[in-house]
Amino acid sequence: MRLLTAAVTSLALTLGAQAASAAPVEIKFSHVVAENTPKGQMAVKFKELVDERLAGKVEVKVFPNSQLFGDNKVLEAMLLGDVQMAAPSLSKFQKYTKTLQIFDLPFLFKDMNAVEKFQNGPEGQKLLGALQKKGLVGLGYLHNGMKQLSASQALKVPSDASGKKFRIMTSDVLQAQFEAVDAVPLKKPFSEVFTLLQTKAIDGQENTWSNIYSKKFFEVQPFITESNHGVLDYLVVTSAEFWMELDADLKVEVKKALDEAILHGNSIAAEKAASDKQKIIDSKRSQVLSLTDAERAQWVEAMKPVWKQFEDQIGADLIKAAEASNN
Ligand code: LMR
Fold first, then answer.
1. Less Cβ crowding at N or C end of the chain, within 10 Å?
2. Which residue CA neighbors atom 2 of ligand 1 most closely?
3. Which tens digits make up the pLDDT trace of 73-132?
4. How far is the CA of 199 from the centre of ligand 1 (A)?
5. Radius of gyration (Cα) for the chain, nearest Å?
6. Can you list the domains of the chain with their CATH numbers?
7. How far is the centre of ligand 1, averaged over its atoms, from the C-alpha of 89 (Å)?
8. Coil, strand or helix at 265
9. Which residues pair with 86 in a beta bridge?
10. Containing H/E element for 151?
């Protein structure tokens, strides 16, 4: 009888273990933007592809709009295993590496083609591994687009920004960029920007057309200067621990789905920027201002010294390589 009980118990344990091992691997993908953005659409595509190809083996759950974690918490949560994937903007990694600050240097990339060229080149590819020592794996770059300046007053020349409060992402380079025009930068999470603008706690912010549109910043910012002064792109990341423990065959499939989803996100980013800009213009809630060459030159002159300030942290050669991608 005792033997039988032992056999039954052992069988139950085996079955239990099998059932447990058969549970799909869960990938929680946390991000802060709306679904109708390049990042939102990339995450949706990734889920679709994984559902299609790895049903029962891997399950992707997407949490947009800072529902799960805001940008200042998500990387810590990832290292604790509470979330498996995210794509924070490249400006939000400075606690983990200084080299990615390159992407924040004002007026470094002339357009998104230059950004793409740099990211796909040897230096850009090497930067994907910049977080390795910190337990994070860079899986790929994702585009959003060039940043514009929105404000409660028209910003045409740098002195127009003087004394005004601007929300920035958690980046010392962005802080220096606004200080270079005598403005007051404030590091705040993305989820708070609308309310800060609406209540006039701040005067302005910098962001891409799709973020300004999808988060309705244009409804509370009467002016947007089309400055294209910097880039807002993302690094898709996971934790080294999760990635290492993922079964090798599944990893290949997950990476393939992710690469395809990133391509999809990147392929719609430029069109999204153009159409969201147009929707903002059509809304008449905000006036879109363009800069003359002479006005733009003033912003460049005021902000470019920031490069020198961060050259030691980023590396002069890396800055040169990024500059060369404009040719
Ligand atoms: C921001 O904080 O302004 C952006 O990083 C949000 C995002 O993820 O595009």
1. N
2. 190
3. 999 999 999 999 999 999 999 999 999 999 999 999 999 999 999 999 999 999 999 999
4. 20
5. 22
6. 87-324 (3.40.190.170)
7. 6
8. helix
9. 30, 237
10. strand 148-151
